[in-house]
Amino acid sequence: MSSLAYFFKQSLQGFTRNLSTTLGSIITIFLSLFIIGLFLVGASVVDNIVKSVESEVSITAYVSDDAKESDINSMQDYIKGLEGVSSVSFTSKDQALENFRNMSSNADIVDELGGNPLPASINIELSDPQLVQQVANDIEGNDLFKKIADESDPADSLKYGQRTVERLFSVTNYLRYIGLALIILLVFIALVFINNTIRLAIMARRKEIAIMRLVGASNGFIRGPFLMEGALHAVIGAALAVGCLELLHVFALPRLQGSLAFLPIEVGSQTFLWIYLILLAAGLVIGLIGSALAMRRYLKV
Question: Do residues 22 and 197 make contact, with C-beta atoms less than 8 angstroms apart?
């Protein structure tokens, strides 16, 4: 305990020796971890939006008016057995017209159609939206569907927003890569500042370190204050980042949710708690690694 108290006391003295560098180190760590925290919150929001959009991904297979009921039932049984399919339902021509009537803002349009041009359809809900293309290909290649399809080309009888789905998955993948690159860059910048701060602290205490060597102080005893100082910088920076994120959580996010009520951007308190723990742990690791790298290079003990 006495050694820890000594380490802590020396690390606090290091704050005043190089105040401007210390503040620069803390601010850099704070900004780096704050941006990382913002990205993690944003990633959670994007994940919620993606899940919401994915839950709406479905396939509609239109069937011809002269398709036999037995063929339609057999096709539904086939689709139910496909991987990634959660449910299958059938919409008749009359039901399709009624649905159109309910969704249309002008009911007179339906009355002016002079008949029912809408085809019947098989509606497929997916348990795994990632398999939408595979399921669509299986249906398109089925001989029975080619027989009952509303169009001569079975692909024209399948509607599932392929481009929208592909773009969604592509954008989310790009966002993950960009976020990972950003996190690596910010961690590197924080390590550089910690490294420079500890280097200056070592230089300022070089005479004291030389005396400690002469009297036989152990390597761990000499290195301890510098490790403690780097850890304190990082923990303070992480605490500031957590504090700012909590302010956003309490004040800014509810207003954003109110303004964008049509988007599922709610982030739960448990998610924020995990983010805070990650930032504190990351700050501590960054501080210790940055200090260790500086000591390895500048402190030959």
Answer: yes
122 three-class SS: strand
Cα gap 15→35, rounded to integer Å: 25
204-230 in b/e burial notation, b at 16+ Cβ within 10 A?
ebeeebeeeeeeeeeeeebbbbbbbbb
* Residue 102 half-sphere exposure toward CB, CA atoms < 13 A: 6
d(CA 286, CA 288): 6
State pLDDT tens for residues 111-149: 666 667 788 999 998 888 778 888 989 999 999 999 998
The pLDDT tens digits of the residues spanning 81-108 come to 999 899 999 998 888 888 877 776 655 6
pTM of the model: 0.70
Q: What are the helix and strand counts (H, E) for the chain?
A: 12, 4
Distance from C-alpha of 73 to C-alpha of 221, rounded to nearest angstrom: 79
